[in-house]
Amino acid sequence: MSQPDGGYAYTVNKAFPIAGRDAIVRNVIRQDPEIRVVTIEIEGQPDFIPPNKKLVRVKHIKGFWRFRPLGQGKVEIVYQVHSDPGGGIPAWLVNSFVVKQPFRTLVNMKKIIEESRLPDKKFEFIKEAHEK
Prior knowledge:
- By secondary structure, the protein is α+β, with helices and mostly antiparallel strands.
- The protein has one domain (about 5-115): START domain (Alpha-D-Glucose-1,6-Bisphosphate, Chain A, domain 4, 2-Layer Sandwich).
- The chain is built from 1 helix and 6 strands; from the N terminus they run ββββββα.
- Strands 1, 2, 3, 4, 5 and 6 form a 6-stranded mixed beta sheet that branches.
- Strand 1 and strand 2 (about 20-30) form a beta hairpin.
- The two termini are about 15 Å apart.
- The mean pLDDT is about 85.
């Protein structure tokens, strides 16, 4: 795997009727230089910043994004995350979020890519499938 890079992300989710949640995750980006698969590892960092007293801090998040080039401009995306939102949320509500949230995330990612709203930032260590 090539050199890791990444950073931290802070998110806030509010979903009536439950208390809002906040989360801090560390992202580590790597690429396999042989097959060009890019993996973004996601891990919660609940103590990175002080808690917001108005929100429930998500203490456990672990997962990954995997981008595998298929050729002809196509990419297979695998998105897998395990999280415990904490705070006693009813199972039916958690289960509805588990199904809807990944789908919405991928739909919004597609929309952003199609609208070319992405910044021109590139990671020098990531090579396109056609690059040597």
